[in-house]
Amino acid sequence: MASATASEFKNESDLVFSDISSEAWREYHFESGAKVRIDNPQRLNVSESGGHRIFDSQGLSHYIPKGWIHLIWETKPGQPNFVR
């Protein structure tokens, strides 16, 4: 079974996702010291509660709950540093 790609992103919800494919990776830091890193994020939805829904280039869907204290990312060469 082949994994999904960004071109196969399928959203059947009423959520609006922004294109963040200019990012090489993003990493969330929590007060506990825990970190969550997502390589090649493609799409992002920020919920009213502050949670982040992210679809990555592997076809995986991630949910990062509100409560992180720091977010860091690296853009791909030549891409804008801020897109949303």
Molecular structure report:
The protein is mostly beta strands and 84 residues long. It is built from no helices and seven strands. The relative contact order is 0.28.
What is this entry, summarized?
This protein is mainly β. The chain contains no helices and seven strands.
Strand fraction equals over 45%
Given the structure, what is the number of helices? 0
Radius of gyration: 13 Å
Task: Characterize the quaternary organization of these chains.
Answer: single chain
Major β-sheet strand ordering: 1-4-5-6
Q: Termini distance?
A: 33 Å
Q: Give the proportion of residues in helices.
A: under 10%
Helix-and-strand structural type: mainly beta
Low-confidence segments, ≥5 residues, pLDDT <50?
1-6
What is the H/E order?
EEEEEEE
Number of strands: 7
Shape designation: globular
Q: Sheet bearing the most strands, described?
A: 4 strands, antiparallel
Summed over residues and divided by their number, the pLDDT gives a mean of 90
